[in-house]
Amino acid sequence: MATIKEIGNATVFQQLITSVAADKLVVIDFYATWCGPCKMISPFMAQLAGRYRHVQFAKLDVDKVKDVATLCKVTAMPTFQFYKGGKKVAELKGANPTQLEQYVKEHQGGSDGASSSSSSSGGNAFAGAPGHSDLTDIITPNQMDALNQQEEHNVKNLFKKDDSYLESDVDEQLIISVPFNQPVKLHSLKFKVPDIAKAPKTIKIFANRQNLGFEDADSIKETQTLVLEPKDFEEDAVVNLRFVKFQNIVNIVLFVADNQEKEETTAIQQLTFIGSTVESTNMGDLKKMGEEE
């Protein structure tokens, strides 16, 4: 079983980044025990260690090894630093699973026992959305919901990379609720549809709303309304959001009011949220629990 090395002092840190082979990647997770995002991404870090066994993964508690955290100029948690041959080759601030794995893929070098699969939607693969990535990995699947969905063609199909799809039931309208397991900034959406005639047309988007019904969707002011055209479903197309309105999102609701050609039902094969995580806890802005009297 792959292990994640715990760095307990500066000597261990220096030995780790300098003693391994020059082409071997070392990934260090700078964390704090009181940091919520650190706890959320920790299981994913363990998954990566199991998949990329030729990469050395390590953790460093910034409160216990302050001298190394200061030396490495770590100011927010979690921060991930990537080393090769004793030199830092990349850094990631924030608990962004997709971007973390993308950096591992980019800098991993050899592939002894590594996962050979690659995500076509990871990293900065979206034209027009530099610095943003696919947020699918931080959606909470068991809390997703859709109103007026068919039992077989349900909302969970939206985030599968196959031919399954979501389809409305008694009419063309849908309400799709998507929760994230940490705050995110949403830049844009990407749609894939099985049938352009049944593709959504008018979509009202509600930021940080939960338990929204069809009557609510008509009476509550939406954060943004999209009116989609056939070109918005082309392979390389993304639909931009008003980024300033989607800066600290934990739940998003999409009300699909109609479809492109007034078909009886609406169908969506894949829905991709493109954005980034809200950068995690800043040491200067947060007091550790226990310091307050």
In short:
This protein is α+β, with helices and mostly antiparallel strands and 293 residues long. It has 5 helices and 15 strands.
Notes on the structure:
- The structure is a single chain.
- The protein is an alpha+beta fold and 293 residues long.
- It folds into two domains: 5-107, Glutaredoxin (3-Layer(aba) Sandwich); 133-277, PITH domain (Jelly Rolls, Sandwich).
- Helices cover 17% and strands 29% of the residues.
- The chain contains five helices and 15 strands.
- The protein has helices at residues 10-19, 36-51, 66-71, 97-107, 214-219; strands at 5-7, 26-31, 56-61, 79-84, 87-93, 133-134, 145-147, 166-167, 174-192, 202-207, 224-227, 239-240, 249-256, 267-268, 270-277.
- The strands form three sheets. Strands 6, 7, 9, 10, 11, 12, 13 and 15 form an eight-stranded antiparallel sheet that branches. Strands 1-3-2-4-5 form a five-stranded mixed sheet, with helices on both faces.
- Strand 2, helix 2 (36-51) and strand 3 (56-61) form a beta-alpha-beta unit.
- The model is unreliable at 111-124 and 280-293 (pLDDT under 50).
Structural class: alpha+beta
Q: Whole-number radius of gyration? A: 21 Å
Tertiary shape: elongated
Total separate domains: 2
Largest sheet: 8 strands, antiparallel
* CATH fold description of the largest domain: Jelly Rolls
